[in-house]
Amino acid sequence: MPFAAACPETDRPDLPDRPPQPAARRGLAAAAEKARCFGALAAAGYRRYATYRQAAVAGLFTNIVFGAMLCAIMLAAAHGGNTPGGYTAAQLVAFVWIGQGLLNVVHMWGWREFSDRITSGDVTSDLLRPVDPIAAYAAADLGRAAQAMLWRWLPPVVFGLLVYDMYIPHRVATYPLFAASVILAVVVSFGGRYLVNLTAFWLLDVRGPLMVWGIASAVLSGNYFPLRFLPEWTLWLAWVATPFPSLFQAPLDVAVERTSVAAASATVLVQALWAVVLYVLCVRVQRRGVVRLVVQGG
């Protein structure tokens, strides 16, 4: 169709020229459109994972069973008024049950959707879309995390409150800090998983990098045990050199009020720093991968 037919006003001399919009207004309109698109993708991610109800119930049962076993071990370590790692018995109970709820929210393992699309060549359609794949998959992952907060985080926490003498945060500042810490933990986890998926541009099969990521994130994140059980130099090395403590240890320490408000705020800032670092790495590695991308038959 000719352009004039599609836009007939361009051939009418009686219409005055439309004044160009200010740059600030165009920028706001573009930002609003991006935000709307991001929200739509996040909502789609929520709906997608909300359909797996039976899997959610089965996973929830597993989380509660393993949570009870881990809670028994932690209570044994705190028997007699001991405070291993500086945690009281009630704080360790909260650490376990909030952590069991966060397992599916943070979602550290098993995601290889983008690497499969790289291997099959379907990634070309992702790269041709107006939304960058990093933003698109991050939005969907945040929607997944929101669904998991309702169906996989809340029930274990309620179970812990009903069955155990569980620590409840006393400081008002803890609640917004915990919310920010959980969001940043999801973002950091996504950045790490996306970075591992990007290795498919070179390796094609990412099972090895995914296994390394899974083992390291499980041990160094505070998922198996609080990192404060380790020697102090090991704890600081994990915080400074790796993003893994930002996945679990950070939000859990904020939730059980293991440190002061100032220290908890600094912990959230460290998470934000790792989120930025991983985003920059994802952008640069993706650019390198796209340069060498070859689609057979395309």
From TrEMBL:
Q: Where are the transmembrane segments?
A: 55-77, 89-110, 150-168, 174-196, 208-227, 261-282
Top-rank taxon of the source lineage equals: Bacteria
Q: Which InterPro entries match?
A: ABC-2_transporter-like
Work out whether the entry's keyword set contains Phosphoprotein. Answer: no
Q: Does the keyword Membrane apply?
A: yes
> Which portions of the sequence form the region Disordered?
1-23
Please provide the record's keywords in A-Z order: Membrane, Transmembrane, Transmembrane helix
Put simply, this protein is called ABC-2 family transporter protein
| Species, as recorded | Yinghuangia aomiensis
